[in-house]
Design goal:
Length: 106
């Protein structure tokens, strides 16, 4: 697997979603790290795309990209970016990243 994927380009085009406000009460969220955000007003925890994927992989170690995409709703392109940044580990990731970058053509 070569390293020709333009992660910066992927990020610029399709940065994963970051929650700003609590979906329960609308107050500002505090970032806890590893993709988790907590509302200090009501205690509700929100996840960004990275947090969703990471939480899913914790419960389902060895899940492949298609399973993760289906379960979390996070697109494979974004999952590919997270894998590339070594934020997450995905089974069969080399092939998966290749597939993910094909969507990049518009
Ligand atoms: Zn809240």
């Amino acid at each position: 697997m070569d390293d020709n994927i333009n992660v910066e380009g992927l990020l610029r085009d399709d940065m994963y979603k970051i929650p700003v406000r609590c979906s329960k009460c609308g107050k500002m969220l505090k970032y806890l790290g590893v993709g988790e955000y907590k509302c200090e007003a009501c205690g509700y925890t929100e996840y960004d795309d990275y947090g969703l994927v990471r939480a899913y992989l914790e419960k389902h170690p060895g899940a492949n990209a298609v399973e993760v995409e289906r379960a979390t709703g996070v697109s494979r392109k974004i999952i590919a970016v997270l894998v590339k940044q070594s934020k997450i580990e995905i089974k069969g990731r080399a092939r998966f990243i290749e597939e993910g970058t094909h969507d990049q053509r518009k």
